Each structure stands twice: as structure tokens, then as C-alpha cells.
TrEMBL record:
Residues covered by region (Disordered): 391-415
Taxonomic lineage: Bacteria, Pseudomonadati, Myxococcota, Myxococcia, Myxococcales
Domain Sigma-54 factor interaction: 143-372
Entry protein name: Acetoacetate metabolism transcriptional regulator AtoC
Pfam family, one: AAA_lid_14
Source organism of this protein record: Corallococcus caeni
Chain positions with 4-aspartylphosphate modification: D57
């Protein structure tokens, strides 16, 4: 690998010798390995410390790698899981991808190929905001709503799902584009096939191309075996390309061919692979501007924009906030082991007057904060105002108490004091669970660890 890797990798395998070998390999590459000899031990370790990627064997006594994948998806949706298997076939890869795996590695594995796969997973994880990866039942609420805007969107989704035309989902971040893509797949005749997704903005060109189209053995350093790409894995199903506006012109050319001809070649290969895939793309960018600037191909834009579908912002449908709030309060109360919560009239009005620039995902994240940090069971306008004041960018901060005269008090020192106090408070309320503390503060886990180190709290 040309670039040094950084990150904490949880390695799960019942073979002590393999754990030792992988630990040495990852340490040499600059990564920090955390060995676990069973899925049960892995889950306990995940609850205690920050993990960036899980690398797990598929076949283990007790809980299998696939079962571990499901548990990680429920409890730590922001942590990608890579599966290792000596029985690696395309059908198994499809099953793993459908279940939420970030990738898979074949045993016996090549050192460079393993590190190459880890690098892709680390890159994608670092570019994916945690709220956007929130899984489980909380996702079910993102397309809820009885407003006219949402009623029209859902009607269009039902119609679009029945065909095979490419759909371009457009709208601001947090409006539910990935869930809309899933709804298109689940409502289509392809629902029994795989739903494969790829975040295009997370990977540089070289990695994105191999991730899309796969590669042949020897195509580059680390390519020890043939490996299918996401296009091939989605055969018979749906491929969701998120943030399509960030794809480079070089990759755009190859995407255009797949969209037009439904065929491609793997990297390093000469054999043409034909696929039956339905494409759904998403972007928050104005692709028309990219066409005018010459950064996005006009012919690709028209190929993608066959069925354009706009997801409304939350400020365009404030009448849906009450329904969404009740849903998320119920979901987060159950998931955090809290009693049921309800909103008072003034609490609901306080939510409805906010602009929510992060849309439904921001509202979802904020309501989880309320559930964890409030005494309940009725959340009032005062509870909402208190938590809004703790989130910069949502509402003006509260007026600070007068400070005693001091030449040493600066804006920077006050910022650090307030930041440290917020960190301590979040850790206390989260019972020192740092993943939960990061969610309460509305930051990524990595940002939280950096801040804890900065303030001497690590």
C-alpha cells in the first residue's frame, strides 16, 4: 500500500494462529488490531472501545459471521464489516452485500489485497456521516408523512418501482434518498434480487473503478484473485449509486457504457461481462451546473435523469413533524431502554419552528438526544429549548452568565471551557459509552476521540 493506514480493526476468528498473523500484518501496516476469538467477545469489545472496521470470519462456532454482521448493523451502524471466508463465491458475496457487509475477503488472502480492501472500507466509513448510516427501525420513519409533498413522492415511487428505467433521486442531505432507493427496490419485481449500494464520493478514482467493475487476478498489486465489483454483484437486482455528482470524468465514461449497453470489462480483463441491473442514482448537487461547467458529461446526465424524483426538505413539510416526532420518540425510547415519551403542545411548536437544515436525519438525531438527556415522560418546550441551545447551528446559544473581570479570559479560553464541559456532561449522561456520547453531541466518533485527547479526557 502506498498510503499509511490508520484505524482500529476488530479481528474476529476462532483460529488463534490466524488472529496472531492478522494482528502482526495490520500492525505492520499502521493499523491497530483488536483480536476476538468469538462473535460474543467481539460484541463485548465493541461496547467498550472505538472500532473503525470489523474483519470477521464467516464460519465460527456459536454465532456466525453473518449473524455478527446483523448485530453490528443494529448496534453500531456506522462501523463497516468485512467478512473472510474460504468458501467465497459470488452468491455468498451477494448474500453478504444484501445483509449490509462492506466487502468480503477470500481465504487464503493476499496481504496487499486484504489491506486494499481495508483501505476502501476505512475511506467509505470516514466519508459517511453517522446519522446517514443509522440503521434498523429508525430508518422506517424517514419517508413517513401525510403532507401533500410526501404523498406525491410516495405515489411517484410506487409508479417508478414497477419499471426498469433509471431513477435519479435528488434533494438535500438528510431527506431520505437512500431509503427512497430501497423503497424502489422493495416495491419492484426485482425485490428478490440484491440491493447493492456504493457511496461514490468516498473513494478516489482508482478505488472507485475497481469497486464498481471488479478486477482480474494480477490487475494491480494486491489483486491476488478475481473479484466481482458492485455492478456484477447487483445482477438481477438494483445498484444504488449515492453522490453520483462526485464521479470523475474518467469513471463517467465507463458508467455511461454500462448504462447504455449493460456490459463492461473487469479491471485487467478482456472478457465482456453482461449484467441485468436496475440503476438508481442520488445527488444533492445541481448536475445541470456540472454539465455547463464541463465537469459532468451531458450524455451521462440524460441517461441518469430518465425518471427524476425530488425528495422534499423538512421545512417544505412542517406538518409532518408531529408524526415523525412521535415515531422517533417511540423508536429511541425502546432502543435506549427508556420509558415512553410524549411531546407537549409547546414542545411540538418548538420543533415545528426550527428550520432543520439537516432535514429528517437531523430531527431524528435531535430527538434521540432528547430521549437520552431528558427526565420525561412529557417533553416540553423548555426541554426542546435546552437541547437546541447545546447544538450550534440550530439555535442561538443561551446568554452566558457575566464573567468576573479578568485580563486572562479570552474567547478561545471560554470556547475550550464550554467544549470540555459539554464533553464531560455527554460522557456522564452516556454512562461513559463513547459511541452514544458522540451521538448526543452530534459529532462522529473520531471527532469525539480527538476532542477527548485535546482536553486531556482520554
Amino acid at each position: 500500500m502506498s498510503d499509511a493506514l490508520k484505524g482500529h480493526v476488530l479481528v474476529v476468528d476462532d483460529d488463534p494462529a490466524l488472529l496472531k498473523v492478522l494482528g502482526a500484518l495490520l500492525t505492520q501496516a499502521g493499523l491497530t488490531p483488536h483480536p476476538a476469538s468469538s462473535a460474543k467477545d467481539a460484541l463485548a469489545l465493541l461496547a467498550r472501545r472505538p472500532i473503525d472496521v470489523v474483519l470477521s470470519d464467516v464460519r465460527m462456532p456459536g454465532m456466525s459471521g453473518m449473524e455478527l454482521l446483523a448485530e453490528v448493523g443494529r448496534g453500531w451502524p456506522d462501523v463497516p464489516v468485512l467478512l473472510m471466508t474460504a468458501h467465497g463465491t459470488v452468491p455468498l458475496a451477494v448474500e453478504a452485500m444484501k445483509a449490509g457487509a462492506a466487502d468480503f475477503v477470500l481465504k487464503p488472502f493476499d496481504r496487499e489485497e486484504l489491506l486494499f480492501t481495508l483501505k476502501k472500507a476505512l475511506l467509505q466509513a470516514s466519508h459517511t456521516p453517522e446519522p446517514a448510516r443509522a440503521g434498523g427501525k429508525a430508518l422506517d420513519g424517514l419517508l413517513m408523512g401525510q403532507s401533500r409533498a410526501m404523498t406525491e413522492v410516495k405515489a411517484l415511487l410506487v409508479k417508478a418501482a414497477q419499471g426498469t428505467a433509471t431513477v435519479l433521486l435528488r434533494g438535500e442531505s438528510g431527506t431520505g434518498k437512500e431509503l427512497a432507493a430501497r423503497a424502489l427496490h422493495e416495491g419492484s419485481p426485482r425485490r428478490a434480487g440484491p440491493f447493492v449500494k456504493l457511496h461514490c464520493a468516498a473513494l478516489p478514482d482508482t478505488l472507485l473503478e475497481s469497486e464498481l467493475f471488479g478486477y482480474e487476478k494480477g490487475a494491480f498489486t494486491g489483486a491476488a484473485t478475481r473479484k466481482p465489483g458492485r455492478v456484477e454483484l447487483a445482477h438481477g437486482g438494483t445498484l444504488f449509486l449515492d453522490e453520483i455528482g462526485d464521479v470523475s470524468p474518467a469513471v463517467q465514461v465507463k458508467l455511461l457504457r454500462v448504462l447504455q449497453e449493460r456490459e463492461f470489462e473487469r479491471l485487467g480483463g478482456t472478457q465482456t461481462v453482461k449484467v441485468d441491473v436496475r440503476f438508481v442514482a442520488a445527488t444533492h448537487q445541481a448536475l445541470e451546473d456540472g454539465v455547463r461547467r464541463g465537469t459532468f458529461r451531458e450524455d451521462l446526465f440524460y441517461r441518469l435523469n430518465v425518471v427524476p424524483l425530488w425528495l422534499p426538505t423538512l421545512r417544505e413539510r412542517p406538518e409532518d413533524i408531529a408524526l415523525l416526532a412521535r415515531h422517533f420518540l417511540d423508536v429511541h425510547a425502546r432502543s435506549n431502554g427508556r420509558p415512553p415519551f410524549s411531546l407537549s403542545d409547546d414542545g411540538l411548536r418548538a420543533l415545528q419552528t426550527q428550520p432543520w437544515p439537516g432535514n429528517v436525519r437531523q430531527l431524528q438525531n435531535f430527538l434521540e438526544r432528547l430521549v437520552v438527556l431528558s427526565d420525561g415522560p412529557v417533553l416540553t418546550g423548555a426541554d426542546v429549548a435546552r437541547e437546541l441551545s447545546r447544538q450550534p447551528g440550530i439555535a442561538p446559544p443561551p446568554v452566558a452568565a457575566p464573567l468576573p473581570p479578568s485580563d486572562s479570559v479570552t474567547l478561545e479560553s471560554r470556547r475550550k471551557d464550554v467544549e470540555k464541559e459539554a464533553l464531560v456532561d455527554a460522557l456522564k449522561r452516556a454512562g461513559d459509552n463513547r459511541t452514544l456520547a458522540a451521538r448526543l453531541l452530534g459529532v462522529s466518533r473520531r471527532t469525539l476521540y480527538n476532542k477527548l485527547e485535546e482536553h486531556g479526557l482520554s
